[in-house]
């Protein structure tokens, strides 16, 4: 300012109100009156607030005050954590501090959170214990000049002198501790890891450490017990029964002999229900369990065929290996047990139908239980026209065996449509209505699935982390079910519906997949539960439930999206429960805002209401993951078709009853789009667990599908089966997506000729169209042939509600299916031999789209 003709500094104040509280205006300066006017780490000296020297203990502070060592400030003794950070959200203050005996202690998870000169000890920040080796006792060294702690060390000459997860080596010049002789070899911890990709060279990740490995081109170059995968020797073990000697089976990753009969305490039998035609065969499989929980798939047993009165039946013959041959019509109960074992027998119910001599027959069964459904109306059309309604429809109701006979049908093809009139508890249809268009199959079997409109099947599971082998601040688990229809799985539903979960210190909830369980261990504050239960969805039936769980450093867990979960599941332990019964239930009102979206039936806490899957009534499970995923498979993935950006890969066990069961999961983001729109994907080193608990009775394989990280509308997948899980799999080229348009007024599907020709050229021979309306679904099967001729959806019986095929605004889903060699569309729709109930084990590839 200009004063007396010269420039002078402008005064800080002209009156007291220009100064902060506790300050007075004296000679143009704001001056403090006492220490209370200054910040916590300052004192008032000559009217100025002067920063005090950082305290290191209470001795540096005025009487009655304590030292908070990280900030170096003196403050009043605390009684609770919120006293340590006044003005801060109490939840955040409780995460940052713990009050112990009046002292505010800063909580920590690692040294980095404490800052320079401090280390994390027992969950709280403390001053570093040393700056050089001279600060430490004899036999110890100082880890760092800035945040050091004294550690004992062991001089060594070779790795044999060191313990697990350590190796004998000298420090490099860049990592040598202060004051230590860098030439001295000591036992040092191996580099830490979560995944094999965290390790360099030929090292592999096990027990959260990079284990030294060796380069290889085949397994003969690896040590005993190791196998060559992706050019590195990794721990081996059997990968299927074909790897074991006669009389042994591969279970829980090792070849084992059958247990003595006296050690068997229980058994499981699969399948438990089947429909056969005279002359047909099927195989019953027995799994034995011993007192220690071990399982073994038995190659032989004692089987007895009984009629409804319990007398021996000659309707079937059953060999000691479980091969059933249908001899004459009837309903048969086959009892099975291991020879010499004192266990209760397990029973399978078989419906044997006479061979069809003339006309046509349609058998309707429940897709989940496989039992025949009586009272289903079936509308048949002999020699159906290519367009327009059936000129002479015939309606027949299924009998107790689920059979509808059409003896007068003599045409080369016939169409059928089955609709059950049984309602669900909420009034909607219990079952899908299902049709087959112009099939030459004469003995058609149609499984009716549960209606998914406003209904779902799933589980409600707890996951224990007490026995996992990994370490970290975040405990993370996820559970899934085996899939009877793998074409329905995509990134939007793999881990269930999205839940909104609160996080301490954040005002906004974050989305977390429903089947995830998560908690964080935050120092002395204990464990903060983020999501305590796993709520997952799946398909009704006798499924296998699988859980993956582990502990991760918070630095690696940036979010909980499905693709990120897949990236880390290989680092987790796993558990499974075979032969789990999963039921389908109508949606129920959300009474407690279970999914955290603010909607529930309680008007005192929610702004609106909604219905959710009936999670509380779903099958309850408890998982204890404790087995490491020791198997590895190199998976070579073809370019993803245009529109896809993520590849999902799974090691699986396949069975006709349980479906496709994942025992290892991974994902890989594709690269930049090529000129044709496809995206390249680097090979994936897939880790998986060895099947046990009855799941080892299935067939090993690898399942891969191309998906979009942001949409579940389309997917294209392949399944590769083998007698033993391969060490390297090249996934076949993904099928292109099917495209078509649907006109409800004429019930006509008009395929894209280009799309249909491409699919037929790639080997797809069966198409499935799903029309979803307001109350239910109509599922339609037909042969996929080049040319893309229009398809008319067959007229359907009345059923429990209106036919969705005639509804305006019906949603359309199309699936193109490529079946295993030797299995045709006609053969899959026919009852004898392989039929739609064996769909999971004969599906080679598929693509699915929702064009409307």
From TrEMBL:
Listed name of the protein: BIG2 domain-containing protein
Organism field: Archangium violaceum Cb vi76
Lineage: Bacteria, Pseudomonadati, Myxococcota, Myxococcia, Myxococcales
């Amino acid at each position: 300012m200009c004063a007396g003709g010269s420039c002078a500094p402008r005064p800080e104040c002209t009156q007291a109100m220009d100064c902060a509280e506790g300050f007075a205006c004296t000679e143009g300066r704001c001056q403090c009156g006492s220490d209370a006017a200054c910040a916590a780490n300052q004192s008032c000296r000559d009217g100025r607030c002067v920063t005090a020297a950082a305290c290191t203990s209470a001795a540096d502070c005025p009487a009655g005050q304590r030292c908070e060592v990280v900030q170096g400030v003196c403050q009043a003794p605390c009684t609770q954590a919120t006293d340590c950070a006044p003005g801060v959200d109490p939840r955040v203050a409780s995460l940052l501090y713990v009050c112990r005996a009046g002292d505010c202690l800063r909580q920590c998870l690692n040294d980095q959170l404490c800052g320079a000169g401090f280390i994390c000890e027992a969950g709280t920040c403390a001053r570093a214990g040393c700056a050089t080796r001279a600060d430490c006792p004899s036999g110890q060294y100082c880890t760092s000049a800035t945040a050091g702690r004294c550690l004992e060390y062991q001089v060594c000459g070779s790795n044999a002198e060191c313990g697990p997860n350590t190796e004998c080596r000298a420090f490099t010049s860049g990592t040598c501790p202060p004051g230590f002789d860098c030439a001295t070899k000591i036992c040092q911890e191996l580099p830490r890891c979560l995944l094999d990709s965290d390790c360099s060279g030929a090292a592999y990740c096990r027990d959260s450490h990079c284990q030294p490995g060796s380069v290889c081109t085949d397994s003969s170059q690896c040590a005993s017990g190791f196998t060559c995968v992706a050019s590195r020797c990794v721990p081996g073990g059997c990968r299927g029964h074909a790897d074991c000697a006669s009389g042994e089976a591969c279970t829980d990753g090792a070849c084992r002999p059958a247990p003595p009969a006296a050690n068997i305490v229980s058994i499981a039998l699969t399948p438990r229900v089947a429909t056969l035609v005279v002359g047909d065969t099927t195989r019953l499989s027995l799994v034995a369990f011993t007192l220690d929980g071990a399982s073994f798939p038995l190659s032989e047993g004692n089987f007895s065929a009984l009629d409804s009165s319990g007398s021996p039946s000659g309707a079937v013959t059953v060999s000691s290996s479980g091969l059933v041959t249908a001899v004459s019509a009837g309903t048969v109960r086959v009892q099975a047990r291991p020879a010499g074992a004192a266990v209760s027998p397990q029973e399978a119910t078989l419906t044997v139908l006479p061979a069809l001599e003339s006309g046509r027959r349609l058998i309707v069964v429940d897709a989940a239980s496989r039992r025949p459904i009586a009272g289903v109306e079936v509308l048949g059309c002999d020699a159906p026209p290519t367009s327009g309604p059936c000129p002479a429809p015939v309606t027949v109701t299924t009998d107790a065996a689920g059979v509808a006979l059409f003896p007068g049908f003599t045409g080369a093809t016939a169409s059928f449509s089955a609709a059950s009139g049984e309602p669900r508890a909420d009034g909607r249809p219990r079952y899908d209505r299902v049709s087959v268009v112009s099939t030459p199959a004469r003995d058609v079997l149609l499984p009716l699935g549960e209606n998914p409109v406003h209904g779902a099947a799933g589980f409600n599971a707890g996951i224990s982390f007490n026995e996992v082998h990994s370490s970290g601040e975040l405990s993370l688990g996820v559970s899934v079910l085996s899939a009877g229809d793998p074409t329905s799985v995509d990134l939007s539903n793999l881990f269930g519906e999205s839940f909104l979960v609160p996080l301490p210190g954040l005002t906004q909830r974050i989305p977390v997949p429903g089947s995830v369980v998560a908690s964080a261990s935050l120092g002395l504050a204990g464990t903060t539960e983020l999501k305590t239960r796993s709520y997952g969805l799946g398909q009704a039936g006798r499924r296998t439930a699988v859980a993956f769980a582990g502990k991760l450093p918070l630095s690696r867990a940036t979010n909980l999206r499905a693709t990120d979960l897949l990236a880390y599941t290989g680092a987790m332990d796993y558990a499974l429960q075979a032969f789990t019964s999963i039921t389908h239930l109508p949606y129920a009102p959300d009474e407690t805002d279970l999914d955290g979206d603010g909607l529930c039936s309680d008007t005192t806490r929610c702004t609106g209401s909604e219905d959710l899957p009936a999670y509380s009534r779903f099958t309850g499970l408890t998982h204890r993951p404790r087995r490491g995923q020791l198997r590895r498979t190199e998976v070579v993935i073809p370019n993803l078709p245009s529109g896809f950006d993520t590849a999902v890969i799974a090691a699986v066990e396949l069975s006709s009853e349980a479906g496709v069961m994942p025992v290892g999961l991974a994902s890989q983001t594709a690269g930049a789009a090529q000129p044709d729109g496809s995206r390249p994907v680097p090979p994936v080193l897939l880790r998986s667990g060895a099947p046990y608990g009855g799941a080892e009775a299935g067939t090993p394989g690898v399942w891969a599908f191309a998906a979009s990280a942001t949409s579940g509308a389309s997917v294209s997948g392949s399944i590769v089966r083998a007698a033993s899980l391969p060490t390297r799999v090249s996934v076949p080229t993904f099928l292109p997506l099917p495209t078509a348009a649907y006109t409800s007024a004429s019930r006509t599907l008009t395929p894209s000729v280009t799309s249909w020709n491409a699919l037929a050229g790639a080997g797809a021979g069966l198409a499935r169209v799903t029309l979803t309306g307001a109350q239910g679904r109509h599922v339609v099967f037909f042969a996929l042939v080049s040319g893309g001729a229009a398809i008319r959806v067959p007229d359907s019986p009345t059923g429990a509600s209106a036919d969705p095929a005639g509804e305006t605004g019906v949603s359309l889903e199309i699936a193109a299916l490529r079946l295993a060699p030797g299995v045709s569309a006609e053969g899959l729709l026919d009852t004898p031999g392989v039929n739609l109930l064996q769909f999971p084990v004969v599906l080679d590839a598929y693509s699915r789209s929702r064009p409307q």
